[in-house]
């Protein structure tokens, strides 16, 4: 929570490098290892997806198109109609109990 800046789209605030580019997975894994966190970026993706899907099922609001978009997966033609605003995505993420 110490790294979260209200209104930013990313959890970790970049202090060095190109601010328009995401952290590379290798660096995130390095941060986990440096802080003795037995985790990886790949495990984080699975955890994130599963928590969102669980919340959607519990809320009877399953939206596979949103999950695919949040995960960066290719959507089907019918799932690709319309778009999700960042505010909506953040609202769904904020409602999930982590």
Please mark out the parts with pLDDT under 50 across 5 or more consecutive residues, or reply none. none
As a percent range, the share of strand residues is: under 5%
- Shape, please? globular
- Provide mean pLDDT, rounded: 80
Tell me about this structure.
- The protein is an all-alpha fold and 98 residues long.
- It has a domain at 41-95.
- The chain contains four helices and no strands.
- The radius of gyration is 15 Å and the shape is globular.
Short description:
Helix content is 47%, strand content 0%. It is an all-alpha fold.
What's the topology here?
Elements: H1 25-34, H2 41-58, H3 64-71, H4 86-95
Helix pairs in contact: 2-3
Key phrases:
98 residues; mainly alpha; globular
């Amino acid at each position: 929570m110490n790294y979260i800046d209200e209104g930013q789209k990313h959890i970790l605030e970049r202090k060095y490098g190109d601010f328009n580019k995401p952290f590379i997975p290798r660096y995130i894994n390095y941060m986990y290892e440096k802080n003795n966190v037995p985790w990886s970026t790949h495990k984080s993706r699975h955890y994130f997806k599963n928590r969102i899907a669980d919340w959607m099922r519990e809320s009877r609001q399953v939206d596979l198109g949103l999950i695919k978009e949040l995960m960066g997966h290719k959507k089907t033609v019918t799932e690709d109609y319309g778009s999700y605003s960042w505010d909506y995505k953040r609202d769904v993420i904020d409602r999930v109990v982590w």
